[in-house]
């Protein structure tokens, strides 16, 4: 059995460094908000034959107009989401695409739209996350008969959120990645993934405690040894699929898959190397405090 908890301070230090880099990126460069948050223009075209969305997007960006996303809406029909553009910009884009793709193009739709995700929806989403985190904390604490388990699980969950948000601030600065509705979806998905993996480890700690007993540190080491391979195998299957989507999925799903990729890696790390070390450290601090109080009473 490997003594995983011997290096728990190293694990937590790595997490703090990663979060620190993310917070620095967030404060220095901020997040690039997409059309879903800021509003913009929708251009929908029907092409006479199949085209490469990457080539079409690059041609539009060569005109100095950023392409937020491209969605297939039917047979050789595509919806391009852009920042606000004028009628002249639309005509330039249409002409450039005709020349580049050498196909007949029909403009199906050109409209300027407001933000799909307004301040009220953002506020409700934050409330939902806080309420769900509170319910998770209480439920895990009830199931494992200790507030330490619930708090450590929720802290690991927020760890993954901070890593993902900080990563996107960095991605936005380097690769112009934008925050959109799909990013919000990915973040909420990752939160559930993180808690699920943590509970698997916690459950193994509880089972081992019932069978053989022992200190929480020993129980944690045994639980991690028994669940590590399963957790890695499960995560790698997801990571391989997401890697394929990032490389081959095109502009429509690339950054959505990237968000899931970062969240999956962070969740795989945080369950054994954040949630469990926090639990063990809390337990040790609690024992030391009780020991000090006991010594004071005796003296």
UniProtKB/TrEMBL annotation:
Family annotation (Gene3D superfamilies): Multidrug efflux transporter AcrB transmembrane domain (1.20.1640.10)
Signal peptide: none
Membrane-related topology note: Multi-pass membrane protein
Domain Protein export membrane protein SecD/SecF C-terminal: 98-283
HAMAP family: SecF_B
Function: Part of the Sec protein translocase complex. Interacts with the SecYEG preprotein conducting channel. SecDF uses the proton motive force (PMF) to complete protein translocation after the ATP-dependent function of SecA.
Record's protein name: Protein-export membrane protein SecF
Organism name: Candidatus Woesebacteria bacterium RBG_13_36_22
